[in-house]
Amino acid sequence: MLKYLKDIYKGIITPLQGMKITSRYIFTSRVTRKYPEAYTPVLPKVERNRLDVNMTKCTGCQLCAKNCPTKSISIDTLKAVPTDKNVPTDENGKQKKLLVTKFNIDFGTCCFCALCEEACNFDAIYRTAEFDYSDYYRKNLNYHFSNFTPEQIEEKKNILIKYNAEQKIIAEQKTKTENK
Questions:
Q1: What is the longest distance spanned by two Cα atoms in the chain?
Q2: In the predicted model, is pLDDT for residue 95 greater than 90?
């Protein structure tokens, strides 16, 4: 019988305690911030936010991809042909020797360790002030940094194939003349 009365007492006191807490805060000002419109957080100087890539500094050495523990970075390169006039230049105005046709970072798998940033000898990878990655679709977290369109990549591949074929013919002719 005593347990029965204790259960009734708890059944009455518990909602009253909740109402007491609610009534204490019901007439105070709101503390909820309107995110993301009106929310600007104070971030520490060593925060690990979204990465960005300066493609004019990138040489295609792939050190960042090799040092990525989660394999979030994928890079494809293509050798630049010396006779091609439409080869991009680096920040010093020199033509690049490797064309970075694909530079993707999958932020869905990135652990933000910044090992890629430390491995880059050319300071091509750097952190930005962006920290929000919310998206409804995982495929939207795969960022593409290369400046080449698929048509340009095919054109550069065809130019390289032609150049290699010409160089092979020249090398064969040179060996024939040397053997005579």
A1: 118
A2: no
171: Cβ–Cβ under 8 A, 6 or more apart, which residues?
none
Query: With contact defined as beta carbons under 8 Å apart, do 54 and 124 qualify?
Result: yes
Side-chain-facing half-sphere of 92: CA atoms under 13 Å: 6
Question: Residue 124: how many CA atoms within 13 Å on its side-chain side?
Answer: 24
> What pTM, to 2 d.p., does this model score?
0.71
CATH number, domain 51-168, options 3.40.50.300, 3.40.50.1240, 3.90.226.10, 3.30.70.3270: 3.30.70.3270
How confident is the model over 118-167, as pLDDT tens digits? 999 999 999 888 877 778 888 999 999 998 999 999 998 998 899 988 88
